[in-house]
Design goal:
700 residues, 28 helices, mainly alpha, membrane
C-alpha cells in the first residue's frame, strides 16, 4: 500500500478530496460520495474527479515512457528460455534418482542397526534377569537359614540377625523385581513367606522393646522398618497392638456417663497414654534435637486415627447439640485436648500432617456449631424479646430514683439487653469459632433495643392527675419512665467501651484489622443510641408542658372575675400560676440531686415553651379586653347622645384596668417562681416579651 501511495500523483489542495482516499483498503464508493458531499456539490465533485483523472493519465504516460526500454528488453530476453529449461529436466531427474537410492540405503542400514541394538538389549536384560534369579536363589537360601526358628530363637542378639537379614531381604526384593519373567511362582511364594516371617519376628521384637522401654533397640528396629520401606507396617502395629487395647478401655459410654468429669477425664486419660505408653516412641520419632528416626508419625497414624475412630464408634453422642450447656462443655474440652496434643507433641511437620488428615477435618465437622449457635440465638434473643414485646407500664420500671445515681439500669428492658450482651461472651456460652456470629447477635440486640426505645417513646400513657392534701399534682408514670429511659440510654452508651474490651479480649491473635472493625461497628451502634437522647428529651418536655399548660389556659377566665364584680384591685397572682409551675417544682425536687445539669436544661427548655404559650394566652386576653372596652365605649357614646346626657369622667379603676393589673401581677409572680427554681430568666425565651406585653397594656 505504501508503494501505491508513492506512485500516485499529488492532488491539488483545492480539490474536495485527497488522493489517499482511493488507496484505502476499505474504500467504498457510496461512503466516499457520502463523506465528500458535505464539502461541495455533486457538480464540484464531478469537476474535481475529472481534473484528477487527467493527472492520473498524465502520470501513467510518464511512467510508461520512463520504463519503456525495460519493457522492450524483457520480451527479447525471454526468447529461448523455455528451451534452456527443457535441457535441465533430464540431468535433474537423474540426480533425483541417485539421491533416492542413497536415502533408501541409509534407511536399510539404520533399520539393521536398530534391530541389532534391540537384540543386544534383550540379551543384556535376559542376562541381568538370570543373574538376578541366581541372587534370588542365594538370598532365599540364606534368609531361610537365618530366619529358621531354631537359629533365630537361640541367637542372643536377635536385632543383629534382623539387621543382617534386612540387607539380604532388600536384595531379595530388588532381584525378584528384576527377574519377574524367569522366576517361578513357587519362588515368589517362598519370597513372600520369608518376608512375612521376617516382619513377624521384627514386630515381636519391636513390641518387646517398647514394653521393656529399651530405646536403643527400638531405634534399631525403626531403622529396619525404614530400610525395608515398612513405615506404615510399624505405625499399624503400634495402633492395633498397643493403642487399640488402651483406648478401648478409655473411650466408652460408661466412662462418659459415670465419671463426674465425663469427656474431660476421657481426654486426660488419652493424654496419659501418650505420656506413658507412647512417650518412648514419640521421643524417638518427633524431636530432631535428640537421637531420632525420621519418617514415622505415630501421633497421627497410630494414636489419633484410632482415637477418632473409637470416639465416633462408641461415644458419638458427644456431637449432639441438643443440650447447649453439655455441648459447650464437651466441645471446649475437645478443643483443650487438641490444643494440648498440638503444643506438647506437635512439631511443624506433625501438626501439618494432623490438621490436613481427612479424619481430623471430619472430626471437627461433626461438631454442629451452626445448630449450637441457633439454639443459643433463640435462647438469648428470646429472653430479650420477651421483655421488649411487653407493653410499657409502671411494671417496666425496675428500681427507684436511687438507682439513677448508680451504675445499675432502671428499666427491665435495659437490664435484659445488657445482661444478655454480657452473657453472649461468657466462657460458658462463647466459642471462638462462632466469634463473627456472636458479634452480629450483639449488634442485633443493640439495634432491637434502639427500635424498642423509639416505640416506647411514642406509646401514650394515661396521666395520673390525682391531688393530695397540699393540692400538688403527682408526676405521671410516663414522665418517670422517660427520665429512666434517658438515663438508661446514657448508661448503656457509656458502658459500650467496656463491653468492647470484653469482646476484644476474646480475640486470640490480636488482629489489628479485626479490632478496628469492631470499634467502627460498635461506634456506629453507640451513635445510633446517642441519637435517641434528643427524641427522649423532646418527649419529656412535651410531658412536662402538658402538665403545666393546662393550668395556664385558665388565664382566659380572668375577665369574668372582674367584670361587674366590683372586686378590689388585685395584688396577688391567681392560683393557676402556682398550679402551672408546681409540676416543674416537683420534677426539680425529684431529680435535681441526681441529674442536676440535665434537669436544669430540661426545665429551661420546658419554661421557654411554656412561656411562649403563656404569651399567646395573655395576648389573646389583652386583645379581647381591648375590644370589649372599645365596644362599651362606643355604646356609651351612642346612649349618651340619644339621651342628651353629657359624657362624664370615669370614677376609680375600671374593670378592664383591674384585668390588666391582674395579668401583670400573674406574670410577675410567674417570673418570680422561675427564679425560685434557680433558673436564670435570661435563658427563658419570650419571658421578657411577656413582661413587656403586660406592662405596655397597663400604660395605655
Amino acid at each position: 500500500m505504501s508503494n501505491n501511495n508513492n506512485t500516485l500523483p499529488k492532488a491539488p489542495k483545492d480539490l474536495c478530496f485527497s488522493e489517499l482516499d482511493f488507496v484505502q483498503e476499505n474504500f467504498d464508493v457510496d461512503a466516499f460520495l457520502q463523506d465528500h458531499r458535505k464539502n461541495g456539490k455533486l457538480e464540484t465533485m464531478r469537476d474535481d474527479l475529472g481534473m484528477y483523472l487527467k493527472l492520473l493519465r498524465s502520470a501513467m504516460i510518464d511512467l510508461i515512457n520512463r520504463d519503456y526500454t525495460d519493457f522492450v528488453n524483457l520480451s527479447s530476453n525471454l526468447i529461448g528460455l523455455d528451451k534452456a529449461i527443457n535441457e535441465l529436466q533430464v540431468p535433474l531427474g537423474q540426480l533425483r534418482e541417485e539421491v533416492m537410492q542413497v536415502r533408501q540405503a541409509l534407511d536399510d542400514e539404520i533399520a539393521t542397526i536398530s534391530t541389532n541394538l534391540n537384540n543386544n538389549l534383550k540379551i543384556r536384560e535376559r542376562k541381568q534377569s538370570l543373574r538376578s534369579l541366581q541372587h534370588v536363589y542365594k538370598s532365599l537360601k540364606k534368609l531361610s537359614s537365618i530366619l529358621s526358628m531354631k537359629t533365630f530363637m537361640e541367637h542372643r542378639t536377635k536385632i543383629d540377625v534382623l539387621e543382617q537379614a534386612a540387607i539380604e531381604l532388600n536384595q531379595l526384593k530388588f532381584h525378584m523385581s528384576k527377574c519377574k519373567s524367569d522366576i517361578l511362582d513357587d519362588q515368589e511364594k517362598e519370597g513372600r513367606e520369608i518376608e512375612n516371617l521376617y516382619v513377624t519376628y521384627l514386630n515381636e521384637l519391636f513390641l518387646a522393646c517398647i514394653q521393656e522401654k529399651n530405646s536403643n533397640l527400638a531405634i534399631r528396629c525403626l531403622r529396619i522398618y525404614l530400610t525395608l520401606d515398612k513405615i506404615a507396617n510399624a505405625e499399624e502395629l503400634v495402633r492395633y497392638e498397643l493403642v487399640r487395647p488402651l483406648v478401648y478401655n478409655v473411650i466408652n459410654e460408661e466412662n462418659l456417663q459415670s465419671d463426674p468429669l465425663g469427656l474431660h477425664n476421657i481426654y486426660q486419660r488419652l493424654l496419659d497414654i501418650l505420656n506413658v505408653e507412647l512417650k518412648q516412641l514419640l521421643d524417638i520419632t518427633l524431636y530432631p534435637d535428640r537421637i531420632s528416626v525420621k519418617g514415622f508419625n505415630f501421633l497421627v497414624n497410630s494414636f489419633w486415627i484410632e482415637v477418632e475412630e473409637k470416639i465416633e464408634q462408641y461415644i458419638k453422642s458427644i456431637f449432639a447439640p441438643g443440650d447447649p450447656v453439655l455441648f459447650h462443655k464437651r466441645y471446649t474440652a475437645t478443643l483443650e485436648f487438641l490444643t494440648k496434643l498440638e503444643t506438647e507433641y506437635g512439631t511443624r511437620k506433625t501438626l501439618a500432617a494432623l490438621k490436613n488428615h481427612p479424619q481430623y477435618k471430619d472430626f471437627l465437622k461433626k461438631w454442629n456449631l451452626p445448630v449450637y449457635f441457633q439454639i443459643r440465638f433463640q435462647e438469648i434473643a428470646g429472653l430479650v424479646e420477651t421483655v421488649l414485646v411487653e407493653s410499657i407500664s409502671p411494671d417496666s420500671i425496675k428500681g427507684s430514683l436511687a438507682l439513677l445515681t448508680q451504675t445499675n439500669f432502671s428499666l427491665y428492658a435495659t437490664c435484659a439487653v445488657w445482661d444478655n450482651l454480657l452473657r453472649i461472651w461468657d466462657d460458658d456460652i462463647y466459642l471462638y469459632q462462632l466469634f463473627h456470629k456472636f458479634w452480629k447477635l450483639s449488634l442485633q440486640i443493640c439495634s432491637r433495643y434502639q427500635t424498642w426505645c423509639q416505640s416506647a417513646m411514642k406509646q401514650v400513657w394515661p396521666v395520673i392527675n390525682e391531688t393530695n392534701s397540699s393540692n400538688n399534682l403527682v408526676h405521671s408514670t410516663r414522665l418517670n419512665f422517660l427520665v429512666y429511659l434517658y438515663v438508661d440510654v446514657e448508661k448503656l452508651v457509656n458502658a459500650l467501651p467496656s463491653f468492647l474490651q470484653i469482646v476484644q479480649s476474646k480475640i486470640t491473635n490480636k488482629n489489628v484489622t479485626i479490632s478496628k472493625l469492631l470499634e467502627d461497628s460498635l461506634g456506629e451502634t453507640s451513635r445510633n443510641l446517642t441519637n435517641l437522647l434528643p427524641s427522649i428529651t423532646k418527649e419529656i418536655l412535651n410531658e412536662l408542658s402538658e402538665q403545666c399548660v393546662i393550668h395556664l389556659k385558665q388565664v382566659s377566665d380572668i375577665p369574668r372575675l372582674f367584670r361587674r364584680t366590683k372586686r378590689d384591685v388585685p395584688t396577688k397572682p391567681c392560683p393557676y400560676v402556682k398550679s402551672a409551675v408546681v409540676p416543674l417544682i416537683n420534677f426539680l425536687a425529684d431529680y435535681s440531686k441526681i441529674i442536676p445539669e440535665t434537669v436544669n436544661l430540661w426545665l429551661e427548655l420546658t419554661l421557654s415553651s411554656l412561656t411562649e404559650n403563656y404569651l399567646l394566652f395573655v395576648t389573646d386576653v389583652l386583645t379581647s379586653v381591648q375590644k370589649t372596652e372599645e365596644s362599651l365605649r362606643r355604646l356609651k357614646k351612642i346612649r349618651d347622645k340619644s339621651t342628651g346626657i353629657l359624657p362624664s369622667e370615669p370614677q376609680g379603676i375600671s374593670d378592664d384596668e383591674k384585668i390588666r393589673i391582674q395579668l401583670k401581677v400573674d406574670v410577675n409572680g410567674y417570673a418570680n417562681m422561675i427564679k425560685d427554681l434557680n433558673i436564670s430568666t435570661v435563658n427563658i425565651h419570650h419571658l421578657q416579651e411577656l413582661i413587656n406585653a403586660v406592662e405596655a397594656a397597663i400604660k395605655k
